[in-house]
Design goal:
This protein is α/β, with parallel strands linked by helices. It has 9 helices and 8 strands. Strands 1, 2, 3, 4, 5, 6, 7 and 8 form an 8-stranded mixed sheet that branches. Strand 3 and strand 4 form a beta hairpin. Helix 1 (about 25-35) packs antiparallel against helix 3 and helix 2 packs antiparallel against helix 3.
């Protein structure tokens, strides 16, 4: 499905993983739409798959409203539930804290229970990690909910997602910010919607909990850095700013508070302002960004 932008270039939105920090992507998407920039392709990993799927279904202002409602519902406990519920799930499963059903219900409510990737308005793909093949897997067809749940299956938090007899974990394990996939698909202009921290220098761990946090950051960043360093000539890439100066450092234990939605609205608004400022000065748009 080809529908390149006014300048003939295919424009891709790449939405990375990052849990609750993914709220910044709502603000970034609002800024892009305000600037008159529409995607020809959308690629997502983990929370980026969730945000990206809703935009792919309706790439207009109404999608921003639905995303804000979805994040508000998550903040109200609509996805992760109560402490008692988490304990029951862990005891019964032995492997994870939360059932996948609330997230599936949210997707079904927003997109319809029969929504399929190949029927979305904008071509959409999302990444998950296959357990059996120990490999990156891209969903580009089939039920949207199955694909997004596979991409969002954070180990220990949500159960592995089973699709056609194969089991999947969170796509961030194999490709957290999938710029390379957009390049492979022929995108010439790419907007990267990450969740932050990628530009903050790492240091050797000094405390026990920092060992895992530093290891995760290396895994999250190395492929993105490699992909950015090997872009084909002529590829235009814009890494949108989060505008969130309050985001925790990678070695701050607060990054583990995956249910802390207290700053969702603030993060989204900061990303909206910062991204609008960026677009005004760095990108030729069809219509000028709003105030």
């Amino acid at each position: 499905m080809d529908h390149p932008g006014d300048d003939g270039a295919r424009t891709a939105f790449v939405l990375g993983g990052g849990g609750v920090l993914g709220a910044v992507q709502v603000g970034m998407l609002a800024a892009l739409l305000d600037a008159g920039i529409r995607p020809d392709l959308i690629f997502g990993t983990s929370v980026g798959a969730l945000n990206g799927a809703l935009l792919a279904a309706d790439p207009g202002p109404a999608a921003i409203g639905r995303l804000r409602e979805l994040w508000a519902a998550a903040a109200a406990g609509g996805v992760f539930g109560s402490a008692v519920g988490r304990l029951r799930t862990l005891v019964s499963s032995g492997t994870h804290l939360h059932p996948a059903a609330p997230l599936r219900h949210a997707l079904d409510r927003e997109l319809g229970p029969d929504a399929r990737i190949e029927e979305l308005v904008v071509p959409f793909q999302c990444c998950a990690a296959s357990i059996e093949r120990a490999a990156e897997h891209w969903f580009d067809r089939g039920p949207v909910a199955d694909a997004v749940l596979a991409s969002c299956a954070v180990p220990g938090l949500l159960p592995p997602a089973e699709v056609d007899g194969e089991h999947f974990l969170d796509g961030g394990l194999v490709n957290s910010i999938p710029v390379s996939r957009a390049v492979e698909a022929g995108a010439q202009r790419i907007f990267v919607l990450h969740v932050g921290r990628i530009d903050r220098p790492l240091r050797p761990p000094r405390r026990p909990w920092e060992v895992a946090l530093v290891a995760f950051e290396i895994a999250r960043r190395h492929r993105f850095a490699r992909d950015m360093a090997s872009l084909p000539a002529g590829t235009e890439v814009h890494v949108l700013p989060t505008g969130d100066v309050s985001a925790p450092r990678y070695d701050d234990l607060s990054v583990l508070r995956y249910r802390d939605f207290s700053r969702v609205s603030r993060r989204s608004e900061a990303a909206h302002r910062a991204s609008l400022d960026y677009l005004r000065t760095h990108v030729r748009t069809r219509t000028p960004p709003g105030p």
